[in-house]
Design a protein that fits this description.
Layout lengths: L3 E4 L2 E7 L5 H18 L9 H12 L4 E8 L2 E9 L4 E4 L3 E2 L8 H16 L3 E7 L3 H9 L3 E10 L11 E4 L5 H12 L4 H10 L3 E5 L2 E6 L8 E3 L2 H10 L8 E4 L3 H9 L3 E12 L7 E3 L5
Parallel strand pairs: 5-7
Antiparallel strand pairs: 1-2, 2-3, 3-4, 4-5, 4-6, 7-14, 8-13, 8-14, 9-10, 10-11, 11-12, 12-15
Helix pairs in contact: 1-2
Length: 294
């Protein structure tokens, strides 16, 4: 991990991240996303350095995340993380200091987490990238990622109303097995690791309809995902949310019925994103909202 990699004109060393790296990686994360968003006239996903540092600190210390930093000339120039909470790994956030972008650090950081995923035997890897960021789209395509789904971030006033026949409630550990069945039916794999974290944080919810769980979500937020047997069940989750944390929820725009329903209920498009994958990918057999990690 500590062997130097010669990438372009910049000598880069990749090593495992530590809690001591949080502040600098948070600064780089904020500045990298802030710069590219403003360059394309989109609102930044992260409102400030403190928020970025808090997020980076949380994932650096999470036992199911593998995180690395890139160094050059004795200083940190970027970081990347691999979410290992399910059979499919999620990548991100990939951030490189704007002062040294396009000199190989992003590629080196991606290689590090992809190698880790191979070692861990994940069935596939997924990521979500800003659709307006042509350089990251090109890099991920060169690394073997395939475009699977156009997404949009949506936000707006919370609806705070029930849908007929749907009981939306807080998820508990006792729901994990039933939720795993819904996840597997829709995606062909489970994501209970993220749901378990959502239960622990108090953000996870389920829909009960006709005496059984038909949808679940780790939260209704930028860093959360949801899965449902039908659009109606997913709409029940969205309609019951008290708010949409962060920039908003991620909606697959190929699901025209769901996208139109969100628009008709006051949600508005914030920015476009792209879901990309390597390895196992099944066309979803139901409705879902990915997280920013996938």
């Amino acid at each position: 991990m500590a062997d130097p990699v010669k990438s372009g004109s910049l000598p880069i060393t990749i090593r495992c991240a530590t809690p001591a790296d949080t502040a600098e990686c948070g600064r780089i994360c904020f500045e990298a996303f802030h710069a590219i968003a403003l360059q394309h006239n989109f609102p930044p996903d992260i409102p400030g350095v403190d928020v970025a540092a808090g997020f980076m600190g949380a994932i650096f210390s999470h036992p199911k995340f593998f995180c690395v930093v890139a160094e050059s000339g004795g200083r940190i120039i970027g970081s990347n993380c691999l979410d290992q909470r399910s059979p499919i790994a999620g990548v991100g956030p990939v951030t490189v200091d704007p002062a040294v972008q396009d000199r190989g650090a992003g590629r080196a950081l991606m290689h590090a987490v992809m190698e880790r995923s191979t070692e861990q035997g994940h069935a596939g890897i997924r990521l979500v990238q800003a659709a307006y960021h042509r350089r990251s789209l090109s890099l991920y395509a060169k690394l073997g990622f395939v475009v699977r789904e156009p997404l949009v971030v949506m936000n707006g006033p919370a609806l705070r109303r029930p849908l007929r026949g749907c009981n939306v409630r807080k998820a508990t550990a006792a729901d994990l097995q039933a939720c795993a069945r819904v996840q597997f039916a829709v995606h062909g794999h489970e994501r209970t690791g993220e749901l378990h974290d959502g239960i622990r944080h108090g953000s996870a919810v389920v829909v009960e309809r006709e005496g059984r769980i038909t949808a679940c979500a780790s939260g209704l937020a930028f860093f959360s995902y949801a899965v449902a047997e039908s659009n109606y069940d997913l709409q029940a989750l969205i309609a019951a949310a008290e708010r949409f944390d962060g920039p908003g929820i991620l909606v697959p725009v190929r699901n025209a019925e769901l996208f139109r329903w969100c628009l008709e209920n006051g949600l508005r498009v914030i920015e476009p994103l792209t879901l990309m994958t390597i390895g196992l990918y099944n066309e979803p057999q139901g409705a879902y909202l990915p997280s920013i990690l996938y």
